[in-house]
Amino acid sequence: MTLPPPPAAPDYNGAHLRQILPSVGAALGLSSAEGQGECFENRLGLPEASIAVVLMVDGLGDEQLARHTGHARFLASRWRRAATGRVLDAGVPSTTSASLTSLGTGRTPGEHGLTGYNVYAQDLDRVVNMLGGWDPEVDPRSWQPHDSLLARAERAGAAVVTVSRPQFQDSRLTEASLSGGEFLGAKHMDARFRLAEDWISGHRLRKGQVRQGAPTPLMVYLYVDELDKTGHKYGVDSAEWIRMLELLDAEAERFCAALDKFYGSQALVLMTADHGMIDIAAESRIDLQALEQQEQDELLGAVEHVAGEPRFLHLHTAEGREAQVQEAWQRAFGDQTWVVQKRQALDAGWFGPVEDRVLSRIGDVLVAVHGPIALFHTAESGPAPLSMVGQHGSLTDAERKVPLLSLSGQEI
C-alpha cells in the first residue's frame, strides 16, 4: 500500500492567520511605540483604514463556507470575488487554542506553546487543558510569555476592544493570548454585533460631523462561537448548523451596512476563522479503551501520556520507544493517518519555529488523521467527547484552510 505523504507545513510567513493583526495594525497606521519594540507589518497587503474590525467565526472553514454559500449570500458575495476573498492557513494543530493564540500574538504554535487542546506539561508531569479547563497550577503569563497584539496596538495609540462571551473576559486563554484594551461581553451573537457597533459610534464621529485632528485608530476583535458549538453537537451539514450560518450572515450584513452608512471607507471589516470542521459518523469515533486488550497494549503500552485531540494526537512515549510506537500506530491506522516522530514534524516545519521551552509539549509521536475517523483516549478525557459529531485538529484542507473576507468591500 502506498501511503500519502505528510502534508506541507502551514505558510506561517505568508497567507496565515497569524499575519492578520500585524497587518491590521499596519493598515491602521500604527507605528512602533518608543522603547516597546512594537512592529506592525502589512504582509497581507490590507488597505488603509482608521476603523478595523476582525470578526473571528470559530469553526467556519473555507470548505464549509464554500459548500453552503446558498445559505450565506452576503458572505458568499465577498467569498466569490478574488478581490475580497482569500484563503489562509491555520496552524498545527487546527484547533481553537492554538489558532486564537497565533492570531492574538502573531506567533507560531512552536513559539507561543499552545500546541493543542490538551498539552503535556513536563514540570507537572501531566496533561493540561488549553481551552476552558486550565490547570490552576499553569500560569498563563509564564506558559505563553509573548505580548498580545491587542495590547501592543493599544500601546501604539489605538483604542482597542474585545467583544465576546462574558465568561471569556477573565478566562486563562484570554489572559494568555488576547489580553489588552476594553472587554465587552454578551451571551447572544446579535448582541455582540450591536455592542461592537455601539462601541465604535462612541469613539468615532460619523460622516459629515466636524472633528479636529486625526481620529484615534480603532481596533475591534469580535468573536462568534455559535457555529463551532453547533457543529460539534450536530455536524456542519446539519439543519441546525445551516440555520446558525444564516443568522451569522444576516447579522454580518446588517453590521457592515451600518458601518458603511456612518463611516464609509474609514471602516475595514475582516472575517476569518480559527479552523474548519468535518463530521465523523458515530461508528467512526474510535474509543481506544474499547479496543481488544492486546491492541491497546500494542498502541499504548509504551505511551506515558496522550495529549492533543481526536484528530491530532500527541503521544509522549517512554524513553527510546518512539520508533516502536510509530510502527504500532502505523500498523493500526496507517491508511487513515499520518504518523510521524517529533523530529520529522519539526524538520517539516509543522509548528513553525519552536522555542526550547515548547519542545517537551510536542509529542514524541504525532498521529494526524486524514481519514473520516477520530481517535479518543477516553481514559484521559472521559466518554463525553464521543458524542461530538463535528471534529477538527488535523492538517487536511477541510480543517486547516480558513477564509479571509473583506466584508466591508475593500480589496484585500
Name of the CATH superfamily of the largest domain? Alkaline Phosphatase, subunit A
Shape: globular
Give the percentage of residues in beta strands. Answer: 15-25%
- Radius of gyration (CA) equals 21 Å
CATH class call of the largest domain:
Alpha Beta
Whole-number mean pLDDT: 95
Q: In which order are the strands of the major sheet placed? A: 2-17-8-1-7-5-6
CATH T-level topology of the largest domain: Alkaline Phosphatase, subunit A
Number of helices: 16
What is the CATH architecture term of the largest domain? 3-Layer(aba) Sandwich
Separation, N- and C-terminal Cα atoms: 43 Å
Count of the domains: 2
Describe this structure in words.
- The chain has 412 residues and is of the alpha/beta class.
- It is built from 16 helices and 17 strands.
- The longest helix is centred in the middle third of the chain and has 25 residues, at 239-263.
- The protein starts with 19 loop residues before the first helix and ends in a 6-residue tail after the last strand.
- The model has no long low-confidence stretch (mean pLDDT 95).
Topology of this protein?
Layout lengths: L19 H8 L23 E7 L4 H6 L5 H7 L5 E5 L6 H10 L3 H4 L5 E4 L4 E4 L10 H4 L5 H7 L3 E6 L7 H6 L4 E4 L3 H15 L14 E7 L1 H9 L4 H25 L3 E6 L5 E2 L5 E3 L5 H8 L2 E7 L2 E6 L4 H12 L3 E5 H7 L16 E5 L4 E3 L1 H4 L8 E2 L5 H4 E6 L6
Parallel strand pairs: 1-7, 1-8, 5-6, 5-7, 10-15
Antiparallel strand pairs: 2-17, 3-4, 8-17, 9-16, 11-12, 12-14, 13-14
Helix pairs in contact: 9-11, 10-11, 12-13
